Amino acid sequence: MTVARAARVDGAGDPAWQLYERIGTFLHDQRLDPDPANFAFAWHLLHDSAGPLAKAVAALTDGGVRLTRSDIESLGVESPASARRVREKADGLVAQTQMQVEGFQDMVQAMHDETIGFGRDLARSADAIRRFGKGGEGAMLGELSRVTATMLERVHSAESRLENATREAIELRDKLEEARDNARRDPLTDLPNRRAFEEAYAELAAAGAGMCVAVCDVDHFKGVNDRFGHAVGDRVLKTIAETLKASCGDHLVARYGGEEFAILFAATSLDSARVTLDNARATVAAKRYRLRETDAPLGEITFSAGLTLVAEGESLGASVGRADRLLYAAKKDGRNCVHAA
Predict the structure, then answer these.
(1) pLDDT (tens digit, 9 = 90+) per residue, 29-78?
(2) At a CB cut-off of 8 Å and minimum separation 6, what does 319 contact?
(3) What residues pair up with 253 in beta bridges, in sequence order?
(4) Max CA-CA distance within the chain?
(5) Which of 19, 28, 66 is nearest to 215 (CA)?
(6) Three-state SS for 96?
(7) Gap between the Cα atoms of 216 and 144, Å rounded
(8) What is the dihedral of CA 256, 253, 306, 304, to 10 degrees?
(9) Is 164 exposed, middle or buried, given 0-12, 13-18 or 19+ CB atoms closer than 10 A?
(10) Looking at residue 3, what is its pLDDT?
């Protein structure tokens, strides 16, 4: 402890120490754990406070919105292992798609060549029929039979190739659709992610639809991770995600990042949304969580929430920022409650 205090005093005027202090303040203000990935992100951000990363962060946090781990990952500053996994997954998908496209092109080219050859052979056969016609009816019928058999064989071959090409095209479309869905889905909870939430908000706003936005945060979640480990914390998040989705019906429930969830209530009054959200809160609080391995109780798990009515033409940053401030008020009011305005 004495060494740490001395280091703070001696390094007070050192630019490196000042950067370190700013990093610590940033992580504290954003409620981010001081792990290597978050620390690296803060260093890149504050080392160049006027750079493109700083501008992107300013846009994301407009209106008082806090950064989340998904924000950090989407901005491209992440651990080498995480970045490698993302690259490997993307490279694999690209390679699969490229193979499908090349196979489809080869098949179409083969069908094109087959069609040209078929037309050429058919022209030769027509000439042969005219010649055999001069030699008698039997010879002409024989040639007609041969040409017909050849035509049927080639038609069947073309149908088979077309069927394969159609199947390849469907598989390619499904893979691309899967990739598009994965880009908008949280892998842990299988809920839509922040990107999907933002797109849904923009779509409803463009249509002029009335909506409410809620931001939910699991109470004392860091304590769950510290006491029981991240694997248990992940199971808690998945359970809460399932409860929110089941309780909110057709309304969009998304994992906004970390232990935060966001809910987009479409065509619903503030009072109706509050009732739905409070029922979900009560359902989560009533559950009795236990360790799978030992059956030991985890204690009460709850969440707090801020809920707001979105004004016509209001930006996502403004509405989520207001919901976030209501969430903080709910935390200060004892947690395990919903504040709405």
Answers:
(1) 777 777 777 778 888 778 777 777 777 777 666 555 677 666 676 665 54
(2) 213, 308, 310, 311
(3) 263
(4) 116
(5) 66
(6) helix
(7) 78
(8) -80
(9) middle
(10) 32
300 is catalytic: no
Closest CA to 44 of 57, 28, 63: 57
Q: What are phi and psi of 89, to 5 degrees?
A: -65, -45
Q: At what angle do helices 194-207 and 316-332 cross, to 10 degrees?
A: 120
d(CA 106, CA 108): 6
Per the model's pLDDT, the better-predicted residue between 82 and 75 turns out to be 75
At 252-298, the pLDDT tens digits run 999 998 899 999 999 999 999 999 999 999 999 998 877 766 777 77
CA distance linking residue 13 with residue 322, whole number of Å? 38
Phi, psi values for residue 336, rounded to 5°: 55, 45
Q: Are 67 and 27 in contact (CB under 8 A)?
A: no
Q: What tens digit of pLDDT does each residue of 151-172 get? A: 667 767 777 777 777 777 777 7
| Active-site pick, 78, 259, 260, 314 | 259
Residue type, 149: A
